[in-house]
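chain below, 243 aa
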Amino acid sequence: MKLKKILSAILAAAVVAGTSVMTAFAAGDGEAAYCFDNTSKLSDWQTYGSTKETGFKISHENLISKNGNGCILISESSAGDIENKFGGAYISADALGIDDFRGCTIEMSMLLCEGAEGFYDNLSIYSDGIIWLTQPAENLSTTEWTTVTMTLPENADNTKIGFTIPTFNAYTGDIVYIDDVSVTKPDGTVISNRGDYEARKVKSEDAVSTGTNVALTILLVVLILAIVGGIGLIVSAAIRRFT
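prediction:
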């Protein structure tokens, strides 16, 4: 793994001139390749490396999301004594119907879990293949979603993209929510959703009760009548005054 990273660093210097320049934008509702609104496409994601040793786990969460009806939650259960510190989860290009990710822009939206501050030191989005590339997830928030973006060089025909194990320190619990994994081709075409998008469902606690709606409607009618009546009185008084 160390040798591969050294070789990747050399290759990165050689191909940096071929890196495409593209203005990245966060995917809108339902636009991302993976929306994680249900579990139908989680089987596309494969794990590797020290996932067993760190207790690395991907689960589905439908109470929190950036867009749509859900996201995935990354958690760990680790004593921190890990010999081989590498690994994570990835998808292959063929899962998206393309040959490789050369020149593509990858985006992932992340929200840090409460209490996980300081325990995502190793979290990055990455691409692997002819060259190893990473983009660290920095300054994540527990209150606002952060979109992490990486653009591959046009001559790097990597066949994998993914995210790394968040930390190799001792930690047990939830670490980060991930939503809206988006892939934009070099020509600006966004790879369409793979079939796991669902519109956000309105939860009962978010819906206004029927009784409240009736009360608000009555109040609005009373206010309108009061305003109309007030205007009528003013007009009548003015007419009497000048007649």
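The longest strand covers residues 171-184. The helical segments are 2-15, 51-54, 210-241.
thats it, cya
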